[in-house]
Amino acid sequence: MKKLLVQGLLVVFLSLFLYSCSEENHPPALVILATPSSGNAPLSVQCRAEASDPDNNPLAFEWDFGDGSARSNEQNPAHIFMDTGVFTATCTVTDNGSPPKSTSKTVTITVSAPSPTLSALKPAWKVAHLPEFTLTVTGTNFIPSSRIVFNEVEKTVEFLSSSEIRCHITPEDTNVFSGQTPGSSSLQSSVKSESLLGVWVRNPSPGGDSQPLNFTVRSNHTFSTPELICSDFSESYSLLINRYLYLIYRPNKFDNMKLMISKDNGKTWLPAVEIPHSSDDLIFSFAVDNSGTLYCVNLETGSEYADIMLAKSTNGGITWTENRLICAGTQESGLCNHTAQNVNIIALNDDSLHVIWMEHGIECAGSFNYYIRSTDHGETWSERRKTPDAGTINTYYPTLLGNGYGTLHYISYIGGSYEYPTGPFYQYSTDNGLTWPSSVLIQPSLYAPAPKIPYPGPNDFLYLPYLSTIHYVTTLAAQVSKDHGQSWKYIHDFGYMGGSEDYRDISFSPDIAGNLHVFWAHGYGSAKMAVYYSRKINMDDLYEMWGPSPATAISPAGYMTDRDSYAIDDEGNLYMVWQSTTKPNRLYFVRSDRDE
Questions:
Q1: What is the CATH classification number for the domain harbouring 187?
Q2: For residues 46 and 475, what is the distance between their CA atoms, to the nearest angstrom?
Q3: Rounded distance between C-alpha atoms, residue 357 and residue 338, angstroms
Q4: What's the CA gap between 63 and 78, in Å, rounded?
């Protein structure tokens, strides 16, 4: 009996053992293939997997191509190897047994670099020392590891496709004129006007370099032919720029101002539209913010006090809001009524708005400047307060300047009389008008007439241009300050002009790349006036000398210009409006050549 029991247990144990062995999961079998396994990038490879499972379990596939791209769950995926190298593609097949079993196989794929070719550059030229720009290269056989070689400098590229790549070019890359020997300080000194640089594409070995194309670097701007854009001008015009170009001008003394807009960098202009609430003589100011919203600040006509009003347009000046009170005038200290003059508004890069104006006492001697600001596109405004120079009786002609570099600049004239004030005095604020250091009197050379308003540039430098005359010899002169106007350095004649001709309306236009653009008019008599242009590079060395930069006549005789005639965009391109001296009701427009 005992023997039978033992035999029965052995039978049961053996049955269980055989049953468990019959349920064991076996790994699948796998064979893979990649066709072709070598070639030039971009290489299109068809991957194939042949697999079977001894236990007839369903199978799942995963391919890792070894080039950092996304994995594939297809059994037979197609894959494009964009870059060069030796890649190990791995296929893993997994059954759904318990537990799952996997099998992996690898295949090697070798991708070479073909020789690239170039067909075009965009742009094909630039003015030296402009801000950083994008160079786009078109051709064939480009890969992600391709490099653009510009002026012997290898540049990292942004890969767009096998036929298009691009890179960023800095002012240093185009600085091919800095090594020239400086000539005299005369603006008539000659320098090389343009230089050809080689541009090619470099692929990793064994692909090598393409044949080069020429990229032209010009030492200076060239300008379009003057184009008549306005034939009903009477007085007071200005050129603004933000998203678009805006020309604002007055047809007649007591008419509303008109607005013209160009949305294609001055190539075409939309018809002029009237700006409501701008009919008062000189008591208005305009600004445009980053969103393209236009603002008109003005004095309420017939106001007993100094009521400051605001209208704005969000559709390019076609329609405007109602003229809205943003600061009510008051009776100063209960002594006399004040009326506003010289209203001025600017919009900074953060879209904050800043308004400043002068209030003149009607029944008492005295005038003061006042200031308000808005940080919500003109919907609400701060309380009005006197500007920091208000401790001095009689302040005149307030002007705000914003250069986009984080500083608010304030210019005013103090003391004396309305006709003969002292100044300009300069103050600045680095916190958008909340605090202001003390005023500094800007003093020009003893031989210069009353100075113009200084121009703010990068690093908060200030540039004050003027004409200096000694013994009947006229030169273009300037002062520069590197410390917010606290101290000034005189630049000895950076342009010797000589003779008895008339020189007028010298203006500076700093740009963000460290260039200082200079415009002036000269000629004997208004009919012979012409507009001239020159450019100073590397503004840091203004303390030392004015580098060689030839003067260029950019208008024929018979044109005049003034401070508000110029605009400059973030790419360093220049736009100008000129007034005809022979036909005073006409305005002409020119622009520097730019990339199409």
A1: 2.60.40.10
A2: 75
A3: 12
A4: 10
pLDDT at 186: 35
The tokens for 60 are 């799942």
Query: Which amino acid is located at 146 in the chain?
Result: S
At residue 255 the predicted structure's pLDDT band, cuts being 50, 70 and 90, is confident
pLDDT of 545: 43
Which helix (H) or strand (E) segment is 12 a member of?
Answer: helix 2-22
Same domain flag for 43 and 121 = no
Instruction: For residue 369, list its beta bridge partners.
Output: 358
Q: Is residue 345 part of a domain?
A: yes
pTM for this entry: 0.72
Task: Please report, as a single letter, which amino acid is at residue 71.
Answer: R
Query: Residue 74 belongs to what domain range?
Result: 27-112
The answer to the question of residue 354 being in a domain is yes
pLDDT, tens only, 128-184: 777 788 999 999 999 888 999 998 899 999 999 989 999 999 877 887 765 443 333
pLDDT score for 578? 85
Within a domain: 252: no
Output phi, psi for 555, to 5 deg. Answer: -145, 150
Angle, alpha carbons 314-317-323 (nearest 5°): 80
Instruction: Give the amino acid at 197.
Output: L
Mean pLDDT, all residues of the chain: 79
- Calculate ∠ Cα 191-197-202, nearest 5°: 165
Residue 359 lies inside a defined structural domain of this protein: yes
Dig out the tokens for 221 from the structure: 């701007």
The position carrying tokens 């000694």 is: 470
Residue among 514, 587, 521 nearest 556 (CA): 521
Structurally, the chain folds into a number of domains equal to 3
Tokens in use for 218?
A: 């010009």
Q: Which residue has the tokens 């460290």?
A: 514
Produce one character per residue of 366-388: b if its CB has 16 or more CB atoms within 10 Å, e if not.
ebbbbbbbbeebbeebeebeebb
Residues 366 and 409 grouped into a single domain: yes
* Distance, first Cα to last Cα, the chain: 107
